[in-house]
Design goal:
This protein is an alpha/beta fold. The chain contains nine helices and five strands. The protein has one domain: Rossmann fold (3-Layer(aba) Sandwich). Helix content is about 60%, strand content about 15%. α4 runs parallel beside α5. It binds BIS(adenosine)-5'-pentaphosphate (AP5) and magnesium ion (MG).
Length: about 190
């Protein structure tokens, strides 16, 4: 099983590169952001709860997120592996993921950290906000998401280094060039 954590700040290209990885390696994809946006669209109770956090650029509580993740993971049948996009985002989530995989005789194979400077992140997300209208892609909320990323999520870089799973990926450049670097890192495993 190939279990990949794709990691990076908001707008670093996690979703973009996940689609390509899924296609090339035949993995299942869990984007916790996409799961929550679908719940909001369908007007579920979970969606109503999630919307309050997402619109403020804040994280959904760990316990809720961990339950959602496990149920999506267990819905995959005969999986070759999973790409985790936007999860984990806190140390508690990383520990929960490790335990969840261990309970199923699996582990994270690699953590890919897409590094992109802040001005480029802002440019990408403002542009997407104008084109697609994602509710949290406005300057004020993007700034909050970046603060949350630095305080709660970036500490996972050292956590995965200690686990021996960390792989830095230069996240600026063409989507193809970045994908080539990702493929090279995966094929070395
Ligand atoms: P989530 O949906 O995960 O959003 P995010 O982390 O803020 O990241 P994005 O999806 O905005 O960016 P991305 O890295 O996927 O980049 P993309 O490929 O789209 O989470 C949203 C919210 O949900 C959170 O704020 C939180 O509230 C909640 N949530 C989600 N997971 C949670 C969790 N685990 N725990 C608690 N709460 C959670 O690219 C961005 C743009 O850049 C696109 O327009 C793309 O076309 C463009 N682009 C991509 N690559 C390049 C390139 N190489 N050059 C130029 N442009 C590029
Ligand atoms: Mg995304």
């Amino acid at each position: 099983m190939l279990n990949i954590v794709i990691f990076g700040a908001p707008g670093s290209g996690k979703g973009t590169q996940s689609e390509r990885i899924v296609e090339k390696f035949g993995l299942n994809h869990i984007s916790t952001g996409d799961v929550l946006r679908a719940e909001i669209k369908n007007g579920t109770e979970l969606g109503k709860t999630a919307k309050g956090y997402i619109d403020q650029g804040q994280l959904i509580p760990d316990a809720l997120m961990i339950d959602i993740l496990a149920s999506v993971f267990d819905s995959f049948k005969d999986s070759k592996g999973v790409i985790f996009d936007g999860f984990p985002r806190t140390i508690a989530q990383a520990e929960a993921l490790k335990q969840m995989l261990k309970d199923r005789n699996q582990e994270v194979s690699i953590m890919l950290d897409l590094e992109v400077p802040e001005d480029e992140l802002m440019t990408r997300l403002i542009k997407r906000g104008q084109e697609s209208g994602r509710a949290d892609d406005n300057e004020e909320t993007i700034k909050k998401r970046l603060v949350v990323y630095h305080s709660q999520t970036a500490p996972l870089i050292d956590w995965y280094k200690k686990e021996g799973k960390y792989q830095h990926i230069q996240g600026v450049g063409t989507m193809d060039a970045i994908f080539n670097d990702i493929v090279a890192a995966i094929e070395k495993l």
